[in-house]
Amino acid sequence: MLKEYTEQIREVAKRLLKDKVVDCVIGYRKGTVPMLDAPYIAYTEEEADNLIWSSFCVSNLAKFLIGRKGKSAIVAQGCISRSIVNLINENQVKRENVYIIGVWSPGMVDRRKVLEKFYDKEILEVEEDGDELIVKGKDFEGKEFEERISKNEVKRDNCFTCMHRNAVIYDEFVGEKGEETGGGNIDNVAAPWEKLSFDERWEAFRETFGSCIRCYACRNVCPLCYCSVCFVDESKPQWCGKTQDEADIFTFHILRAFHCAGRCVDCGACESACPMGIKVRRLTSKLEKDVRELYGYVPGLEIGAKPPLAVYRPDDPENFITP
Amino acid sequence: MYARRRFALLKSLLEYVGIESDRIHFTWISSAEAGKFQEKAKEIVEKVRKLGPAKKLVKDIRPKN
């Protein structure tokens, strides 16, 4: 089914480029590393033949729209289209400059889960076949292997609890609309540390984020992080140290999560981009749950919606205030 | 009013990470209520003192030698 999507996306892209409706088409092409498909911008019809759609498209393409001149088309599934709505609401992108090619997301595969399953072998190629993945490679003695695994076992964490797999806004929808939700219940898995005591929570936090090397890949891939000078780059005053001391690492992650409060759509690109495999979403999912419960707001669904931190209601909950 | 929303989320996030809830306080005081300010300050200092020195999110910047 994904092969049909690929062909239809290529056709739409070629048509849009030929009729000069857009200057370029932002999508994905096959990556050079197994299980990682790279973002790709096609400017001509020949280049449009490189576009694909698969279960390995894990970055967030909305980032490429920021500061882009001219009109662009973009291949967007549910979470990406919600990111685009967010950017339009924050005046970073104009609706007229974007032509959204809506698609359905099958739920992306988390390549680390696959690598863990084959920890004693080298994976050279992975193909998709319906609901399964065919993993091919060699073990460390040079013997080739080929194995099938179910996609459901290795899906990305946030794709399980996704509530909007089809694009929520689009100029054109490619293929048929698929199942809207991923089947998981976000309230069961969001904020897993709430059940722990304060000290246990701190230990869990230290363990999760302790291996951060401050590469800022999570910040660079997030479409919400578009400040011309990020708060970590400020030196007068220095809000956050740049060392790998624990306190600095934790300050960075807490503040970055807080800057995305009420704006994060849970696309999972930060977790996929982290070279250390850190579960960056543990913090943002807690904030997303809070915003949903306290203020009833889900980001990225409506153009023109007011951001939750820019409005207030007189009856906002205030049980946390010391009397 | 906007601060109320931001503070609710911040306190929730910091408690989620493991910082004790008695270390984070928020209260409405106007610049004319000096007496209340003094009382609040004493109260909060007492509560935090009971918790002892902070061990989390602490960075040692003394020179190492």
Descriptive notes:
- The complex is a heterodimer of chains A (323) and B (65).
- In chain A, a hairpin with a 2-residue loop joins β5 and β6.
- In chain A, the strands form two sheets. A five-stranded mixed sheet of chain A has the order 2-1-3-4-8. Chain A has a three-stranded antiparallel sheet with strand order 5-6-7, with no helix packed on it.
- Chain A has two domains: 2-110 and 155-309, no CATH class; 111-154, no CATH class.
- Chain A has ten helices and eight strands.
- Chain A has 323 residues and is of the alpha/beta class.
- Chain A starts with a helix and ends in a 28-residue tail after the last helix.
- Chain B has 65 residues and is mostly helical.
- Chain B has two helices and no strands.
- Chain B has one domain.
- Chain A binds chain B through residues 191, 193-194, 198-205, 241, 245-248, 250-251, 254, 257-258, 261-262, 283, 286-287, 290-291, 294-295, 308-312, 314, 316-318, 320-323, and chain B through 1-2, 4-21, 25-28, 40, 43-44, 56-60.
Mean pLDDT of chain A: 86
Structural class of chain A: alpha/beta
Biggest β-sheet of chain A, characterized? Answer: 5 strands, mixed
Tell me the β content of chain A. 15-25%
Q: List the quaternary state of the chains.
A: heterodimer
The end-to-end span of chain A amounts to: 59 Å
Low-pLDDT segments, ≥5 res of chain B: none
Q: List the domain count of chain B as a whole number.
A: 1
What's the quick description here?
The complex is a heterodimer of chains A (323) and B (65). With 323 residues, chain A is α/β, with parallel strands linked by helices.
Topology:
The complex is a heterodimer of chains A (323) and B (65).
Chain A (H helix, E strand, L loop, with lengths): L1 H17 L5 E10 L2 E7 L29 E5 L1 H12 L8 E5 L8 H7 L3 E9 L2 E8 L4 E7 L6 H4 L11 E2 L12 H4 L8 H12 L7 H5 L24 H14 L9 H5 L7 H15 L28
Parallel strand pairs in A: 1-3, 3-4, 4-8
Antiparallel strand pairs in A: 1-2, 5-6, 6-7
Chain B lengths: L1 H16 L16 H18 L14
